[in-house]
């Protein structure tokens, strides 16, 4: 995989009542592979925000910098938590990642993550996130 890539991030969130929302983003990034981990670095100059992704076949870490700092960890071996800033104050969310699949070819890296998100001991949503990385075309 080359350094300059295009990333498509699609998230599906299903609430406890069964209603599903879809969120899709596409953005340029820099790709690296080192010490058995894939890395993505994305900069958005308009919003002065950056995101860093570190992942392998069982783990994903996303760190976002800017007006608000956030760190999300998805690990099939343990529960992970994070704090979100909301209009009602800071809230803790817990992620139970039960499946991560990763396929890696010269044309595309594809990662799918399935997880439950809860807060205060209550299920908030079931989620599936698909991350597709392809070489940037000119």
Count of the domains = 1
The number of distinct helices, counting runs of at least 4 residues, comes to 0
The CATH topology turns out to be Lipocalin
What is the name of the CATH superfamily?
Answer: Calycin beta-barrel core domain
Rg measurement, Å: 15 Å
Low-confidence stretches: none
Helix/strand-derived category reads mainly beta
Order of helices and strands: EEEEEEEEEE
CATH class: Mainly Beta
Q: Strand percentage, roughly?
A: over 45%
Approximate shape: globular
Number of strands: 10
Structure explained in plain terms:
- By secondary structure, this protein is mainly β.
- The protein has a single domain (4-135), classed as Lipocalin (Beta Barrel), CATH 2.40.128.20.
- It is 0% helix and 75% strand.
- The two termini are 15 Å apart.
């Amino acid at each position: 995989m080359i350094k300059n890539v295009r990333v498509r991030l699609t998230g599906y969130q299903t609430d406890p009542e069964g209603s599903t929302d879809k969120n899709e983003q596409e953005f340029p990034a820099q790709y690296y592979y080192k010490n058995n981990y894939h890395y993505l670095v994305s900069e958005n100059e308009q919003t002065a925000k950056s995101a860093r992704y570190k992942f392998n076949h069982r783990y994903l870490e996303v760190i976002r910098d800017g007006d608000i700092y956030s760190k999300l960890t998805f690990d099939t071996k343990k529960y992970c938590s994070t704090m979100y800033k909301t209009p009602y104050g800071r809230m803790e969310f817990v992620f139970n990642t039960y499946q991560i699949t990763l396929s890696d070819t010269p044309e595309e890296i594809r990662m799918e993550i399935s997880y439950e998100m809860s807060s205060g001991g209550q299920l908030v949503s079931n989620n599936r996130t698909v991350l597709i990385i392809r070489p940037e075309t000119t």
